[in-house]
């Protein structure tokens, strides 16, 4: 079953993604060399280009009002990249400026609606600074908005500023371990997404665990959060549990799936499941239901109990918790979701697996939406289309790109950060293109796409980022 599954996935990938080219385009002079020998591939109908290299663990990215790209470098602070735009995929970094130096900042980044207040997060708190895009400078002092979030293991605190309800800041927080039983205690604040009203905040700030509006709990580690541009509906993407067993059997290779969940609206419109239990730490979404023992009626996206079922925690209980809106292949580690302007496509980054024999993820995919909802039904296992991916996941996680965060520029070009490789790429929808990567003026490697069966040659150089390896922050 799983052998068939993997070869099917490999065929799908190779039919979608065109080989990359190592030549620089004549119309764009840049000499960036991709960090890794095997460069990512891009789907037919898109173009991609390397924009920046040599960054330190770039996580969230965001354009300011003047088109400067703000980047959180985990453990370093926030950098502003001024870009030289020569059109199409020809974009280079003109200059860089440090906006905030703070080693505690590790992931979250947001801007106020007017672009004059910057928000960023450490494992403990969300802060704000006054921000001037004309000079890429932030105020010397910060304001602590929401605190009391320090815990182990999943330490990113994703920030999302609502574009629909002014002054509403969403913060997503994960669990303290793979299976964190404290997440059942609502006042622990673990594995929740909460919304905070900054318009009436007092100087004391908010306590994450007890203040604000809870949009959901039982969300193991929902690093990606987005607001739909038409409806204002809030979607999140969740990193689900590792090393799952059920009824004494190891089922972790293809179960559970990663989830996309829906949390309703911020404007007061009632959505009954808002704030409810989305399953964790007891219930998880099936991805390969036929691999699950004691399974009478589970389909893709059904919530099932792991471990040994009993008279309180069992599949009946799990079916009653809020179900995912979509389920994705196991262990792909979704870290961001961003909608395009029309709201017809949701882009998702999959940082990539460590808990799977054959690596999964390490790619950017899109999900079709209509009327503010995914087009695919909840039991679909084909809801996403790969746009930008490593040609060969055998080199992952050490020697491949690991997408984290995305931002559209004002012209609808998608920028993608890769923390492990210290890079930022751009992806451009272009019906005329055949899927080549431009502006990568290098290198020894011919970037030839290899099939999933190929093994690494000896040509891989020592890589600065190899030490980042497997389990650093997701
Ligand atoms: C915020 O300001 C406090 C007080 O000056 C400082 O200790 C802290 O490091 C700052 N935090 C960040 C993330 O810059
Ligand atoms: C949004 O809130 C800020 C204060 O945080 C305020 O200055 C601004 O005028 C508000 N904007 C709108 C459109 O209400
Ligand atoms: C701000 O308003 C929200 C919603 O109206 C409320 O839940 C919250 O308690 C208020 N915060 C403060 C500090 O008054
Ligand atoms: C942090 O949370 C604990 C309970 O988990 C509470 O006792 C404490 O007062 C909170 N601290 C702050 C600064 O809000
Ligand atoms: C809130 O959002 C919902 C969903 O998009 C919409 O139907 C409703 O009209 C909005 N309400 C207000 C007061 O804007
Ligand atoms: C039922 O299973 C849950 C989850 O494994 C466990 O926490 C609970 O203690 C079990 N209850 C009984 C009565 O065994
Ligand atoms: C499953 O758990 C529910 C309570 O969550 C209980 O009512 C039901 O009897 C249990 N089913 C079995 C077969 O133990
Ligand atoms: C599967 O069967 C269980 C036990 O009969 C039931 O409680 C549950 O609702 C069913 N789940 C689905 C997804 O149909
Ligand atoms: C985004 O929206 C535009 C405008 O409606 C559309 O043409 C495009 O195909 C969408 N999809 C993606 C993946 O950007
Ligand atoms: C989706 O489910 C079908 C039917 O169970 C199965 O044949 C197929 O291999 C699955 N596809 C993926 C990508 O898992
Ligand atoms: C794409 O491929 C087709 C056929 O192979 C070719 O005719 C066309 O010129 C190519 N387009 C680009 C932009 O390279």
UniProtKB/TrEMBL annotation:
Residues 40-428 form the Pyrroloquinoline quinone-dependent pyranose dehydrogenase beta-propeller domain. Keywords: Signal. Pfam families: TrAA12. It comes from the Eukaryota. Residues 1-22 form the signal peptide. InterPro entries: 6-blade_b-propeller_TolB-like (IPR011042), Beta-prop_PDH (IPR054539), Quinoprot_gluc/sorb_DH_b-prop (IPR011041). This is Pyrroloquinoline quinone-dependent pyranose dehydrogenase beta-propeller domain-containing protein.
